[in-house]
Structures are given as C-alpha cells and as structure tokens.
Design goal:
Length: 278
Amino acid sequence: MKRTLLYIAFAAVLGCMASCDVIGEDERYIQEDAKDSGERVQRVLAEEFTGRMCVNCPEGAEVIHNIQDAFGDRVIVIGIHAGMFAMPVGVFADMDLRTPEGDVYNTAFPYEGNPAAMFNRSTNDGRIVSTNKDAWLTIADKELAKEPLCELTPTCQYDAATRTLSITTEVEAWKNMPADLRLQVQLTEDGIVGAQTTPTGINYEYVHNHVFRTAVNGTWGETMASLLEGETKTYKHTIVLKDGWVAENCNIVVFAYENATKQVLQCNECPVVASAEE
C-alpha cells in the first residue's frame, strides 16, 4: 500500500509540472522519512554524472529531486561533475567542480549521453549507468524494495575554528555480512550557485546541489569487517574542509558496496553541521 502511494505521489508531482490542477487534501501523500518510522529500511544511492555545460542534466537532476521528494530520506544523492561537459571554460571558468575521484568514477562506469545516473550501481538493461530518465523511478523503487543487509549510522563533529570534521560510522549487521565488502565515505555540498546550461539557455543563478567534493577514505574506500548478524563495528575518519567549502551546506555520505560488482548494498548520510531542529 505504501509503495502504491509513493507512485501516486510521484505521478502527482509530474502532473503538477504539466498542469495547474488542484489535488484534494484526501489525495495527498504525506511523506514519512525512514528516520522517523523506526523500521529497518533499505536506502538507494543515486549517483548522477553531470556537468555545467550539459544541457540535459538539469532535467535529470529534477527527476532525481522528484524521486527524493517521493521517498524522503531513503534516497541519498551525489552529483559527480566529470567529463567534457564539466570542463571549466568560457563562462564556466569561474569554478571547477571536477575532482580526481570523479574522473575515475566517470571512466569506471561508462555511459553514452546525458542525463546519466546510477541507482545503487545496480545493472538495468545490461548497464549500470542509466541514460533513460523515464526509467529512474522504477529502478529506484526496485532497489528500495530489497531487504536491507545492514544499517550504517554516520555522525559528524565539526570544529569551525580548525575546519576539522570528525566522522563516526557505526555498522550494524542485520544479516550475516559477506566478505569482500567495502565502506565508502564521501563529502557533498549543496547550494553552490553558478552558471548552468539549460534547454532555454544559460542560467547564471543555477543552484548546484549534492555536488561531490571528495572521497574521505580514498577513491574506492576501505575493506569492511565481515560481521555476523547482530554484530556492530565503528569506523572513524577525519578531514579538514577546504577553503570555499561551506560547512553548513555539506553532508557526509556513507555506503557499503560489493568490491567485485561495485553494487551498493546500503547507504546513509548526515549533515556536517546539524541544524537547530536536529
């Protein structure tokens, strides 16, 4: 029943984009975030390959935003600026959102055309990266329907004076965890304003969200302990935020994935600086 409501919610969002029909109060979906439900939940990691010169990428970002609106905090988003559309040239020379790790991911997960995104790095129609944005909701929903293997709980402690961020990630096994898993800790930033090519021209006030900034524990993360059901393990990491990164707009994303296939099994995130409501 809940999954049906999510589809209705997403359809309502798309419908509102095309018309101005009013949705009655009894037809509206009330979002319930995973952190408030107390249930064991599976999350999905949406990694979008993007660039400021990519004319179709804003439409892809909007689709992912709508999926996130429908499923709440069960959808974790990373925007990887890489490839020829991310080059800082001309009016885009004011800032470079590319990263060395992002360039590696862009090569490791090949695709043709944009928008392009991965959902838990699962294979769909023979490809890990999907360039069919109309299929993204179905792919995300399929991943969210899976039974979760574990829980990842990241917490952040930020020292504004030194710009030092301490990250603690607790892993709790909900099933016996297989060997050859890896833990990845990444940092993203929201609210970056800069020029973006769109179907109607260049938007100089475009807001770039979920921008991948760095991989805290290396490009491919680190080996995870193979825990038995009910066991826990804590991982600790530290990073100094670079000048220009706005701590209040940054998030830490953690995810566990299979080393052989690179498929993501669980993910989560936490803000670098907790809001007053948290």
